[in-house]
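In response to reviewer comment 3 from the previous cycle, which asked for concrete evidence that the modeling workflow produces usable outputs, we include below a single protein chain processed end to end. The sequence was submitted unchanged, and the resulting structure tokens are shown without manual editing.
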Amino acid sequence: MRYKIITAEEAASYINHDDNVGFSGFTASGSPKVIPMAIAQKAESEHAAGRPFQIGMFTGASTSDRLDGALSRANAIKFRTPYQSCGDMRSAINKGTVPFFDLHLSEVAPKLRNNALGHVDIAIIEASHITDDGKIYLGTGVGIAPTVCNMAKKIIIELNHHLPKDLIGFHDIYEPLDPPYRREVPIYKPNDRIGTPYVQVDPEKIIGIVETDLPDGLKDFDTLNEVTMKIGKNVSDFLAEQLRTGRIPEGFLPLQSGVGNIANAVLSCLGSNKEIPNFQMYTEVVQDSVISLMREGRCTFASTCSLSISDTLAGDVFKNLDFFRDKLVLRPSEISNNPEMVHRLGLITMNTAIEADIYGNVNSTHVCGTKLMNGIGGSGDFTRNAYLSIFTCPSTVKDGMISSIVPMVTHADHTEHDVRVVVTEWGVADLRGKCPDERARTIIENCAHPDYRNLLWDYLKIAKSGHVSHNIAAALGMHATFEREGDMSKTDWSRFV
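The workflow returned the following structure tokens.
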């Protein structure tokens, strides 16, 4: 091998205060594991010596505690984008100690290339294999790795020996041209391949290789509970009904699914519903449930950005990669989340909401309008351009003290113009072809928890009539009551009118 083998600490020595660093991966999958912790240690040492040390962070999406957690605890971040899901990072963002700007995941790479976000000084990339002529074979998550590798002045590789060499061939690396030379992205089926299985870089930019042997560290998902399974069944039954009525073409359409327990429940129910044909996926993350569906023959192919599966399952998958070779492809996020692909393939998209209002606007990022949860992720990429967009959420959280169905969302990520269907454990609200008043009645009747339905009906009684009926003073009254008393059900509309 032509490249210098270095330690994680040596790698960190190449990172300077005020550098902008691009990281590989999408979730913990494919994210570097030891160099970020060494950078955090360097930051702590520099701070102890009275010297500044912070870096700008470009990632594919969320990473892991080894990266986001370690750097946030070390106060080593001058800015962060895009999506994150780390508790310590979230806390730092909401305290204002980490400047965070959110982006649709499909936009990160092109905005970097267009110089809208700043330069990339160094790229830190997890790889399963590398060649002397600069071919980098990535790990289980791609993210923005191709773009930051091409833009960075220097590259450091984490060569992870935990990843089998047989991962070679699972990736399809393609970067579109930028305006005014952009052409169509020539993907017409989820299993089309248009690029190379590697990221090609100038080998002179690779300044060192850090060897590791670590799993992604993803835990098993929680056991599916009654609420998540009811949501999953409602989605499954609805899509089966749409097939019967011809609103979904015979043979079905490719699916996109968000992440988390509700997403796993939805996919599980789709797999067990005999009215749903075998299907393909064009999505951003493949989770454990998709692997099970592939083994059952229900999911015949998945195009994704990340093989984000638990360590328990990953070991088995790695031993049986030949089985999955014609069933999986890993793409950069600007391709996996590309709005052109979403529209062309006619995706049925399924994502989770923090809250939805009675008119069909969805908040997927901020609790009570101010506290960031994770970020918009890829939901906007998919929702706006979907054949059919579905948002799911439990009708209540916090032991019933918060209703997820409210008069007005405190932060709008997806407007009524893009949200087609809302689903809770109580039922399905199909909003297509409905005026605002009809949408409100449909959501209250079908999605609100029974304990909150009368409260929401009463809100409509005090709302000022218009194309959209609202009482401006009371629209956020349920949220105000929760902040004051800790329980939305105690809302008294007379206090707001």
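The mean pLDDT is 97. We consider this sufficient to address the reviewer's concern, and the full set will be provided in the supplementary archive.
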